[in-house]
Amino acid sequence: MPPTRDDNSQFPKSMSKRAVEYDEATKVIKIDSALLDSMAKKKTISCLVCIYVYGDQVGRRIELNLPTVLIGRSSECNIVLSHESVSRKHCIIEVQDDGRVFLTDLGSTNGTRVNDEKIPPREPTRLRDGDIISVGSDIFKFLSGDNIEASYYDEIYRLTTTDGLTGIYNKRYYMEALEKEISRARRYRRPLSLIMFDIDHFKRINDTYGHLAGDFVLRKLATVIKEKIRKEDFFARYGGEEFSIILPELPLDKAGAFGEKIRHLVEHTNFVFEGIRIPITISVGVATFDFAMQSSEELILLADQNLYEAKRTGRNKTVG
Q1: Mean pLDDT of successive 10-residue stretches along the chain, which has 320 residues
Q2: What SS3 class is residue 120?
Q3: Catalytic one among 181, 241, 249, 298?
Q4: Listing from the earlier edge strand, what are the strands of the sheet with 282-288?
Q5: Bridge-based pairing state of the strands 282-288 and 318-319
Q6: Number of CB atoms found within 10 A of residue 205's CB
Q7: Do 235 and 226 meet the contact criterion of CB atoms below 8 Å apart?
Q8: Which of these, 181, 197, 320, lies nearest to 249 by C-alpha position?
Q9: In angstroms, rounded to a whole number, what is the distance separating the alpha carbons of residues 35 and 41?
Q10: Is 267 a catalytic residue?
């Protein structure tokens, strides 16, 4: 029963009886219900963003505007992925009327992962905003909620600076950062060091355990090392299985000690993919900027030469 004007107790405390009794004429604005419906759906529609996919699709936005979205290699799928690691009908996304979204693996050969954890086959898994979905070698980010537009453009910006597979800086951003750090080192006559390292026998890992295992190793290695660098350092995937770290304010001896620290860390990290432990080691090259150098390429070349020497003389060591 609606409150009467003689019953103050049911009105908000901030609203006096006098205010309630002031009865201004009500203005009614008629809104087409179908239009309101479409606006609401458009506002909250979820999407996938391609962050690491086979082919030139990085940054592509895929709106989940159907009740079910089938993903796989088959031409019958709503999202067709061509990589051989993807099954013909790999997984399905279901969008509920209440806005909840579920992902189900359809018994695929290589499985489907959410945030790097394989989900049980044929059991719906609810997706949350920001979840990372791996379908074979392809990786998507799930976005939902009222601020989806802002989230999407934030993700596109992030993709211009980071590597989609590992989540650390990409080579393009790394090269820009290195130029800035060299300019700063010259201006203030401060030390600047560089580490280049790559995974020993990485091709053998892919050949023995498969490319999905190789991708897992790259992701986990990046995560493990990222936790050990300083906030002022720049850690990037330089290309393939090669990585680099820019170390501002560190002379050669301290940079060498850090290179040895990460080498030891990787060697003693458990890389376990689908129950199989994969032994991983890295070879590390370290170099320090010489003020006589004319370009960033000279510093990279010196670190790369030391990396090559570490590999030539037995691997799993630090040179520099």
Answers
A1: 40 36 41 46 78 84 96 97 95 95 97 96 97 96 91 93 95 97 96 98 96 96 97 96 98 98 98 96 98 95 98 97
A2: coil
A3: 241
A4: 234-239, 242-248, 192-199, 282-288, 318-319
A5: parallel
A6: 23
A7: yes
A8: 181
A9: 10
A10: no
